[in-house]
User: Fold this.
Amino acid sequence: MLAHAFRDNPLNRAVIGEPAARRLRCNRLGMQLQLGQYLAHGEVVGAWRGPELVGVRMTVPPHHWPLPFSPFSARLRHALRVGFRVSGRWSQVGEVLEAHHPIGGHAYLAILGVRPHAQGQGVGRALLSAWLEEVDAAEAWAWLETDREACLPFYRAGGFELRESLEILGTPVHLMERPARDEAARAVG
Assistant:
């Protein structure tokens, strides 16, 4: 599901290249690796329409960033399957993002993806809103990165503010923060 949601994202194009089928294959393998980490150390939530999984959110609760590394054998297997060039470029992306990732008790939205045919129908908004309720209940602040310019208004509507924009492999990546909501603000809003 997530492989389709991110297939055409700018960073995927920069890291993996063409054709789209190759991006889809590499995304499937990458998402499998990440899914294991988030199931073990974070939270994974799906949105379903009948029997179809149409959206997924992967998050890290407050005070749990950074996640431990995936086992070396899993990372090596991934690199062999996607190729060392793609694996190395994703490592490069990760190093840049890690250098700009804040330290502290924040909640982290690592992945929010919706199948292309279900985008614009409230699936992403429902996944984000439910997570932000958890973040607010924990009295935490939140962090995310996005490489999709079109997603900036979506995240701003959730209370996120742009902190910085970087260029990674020629692709703009936007770092966003949502301040913690205090009790008075929650009672009013």
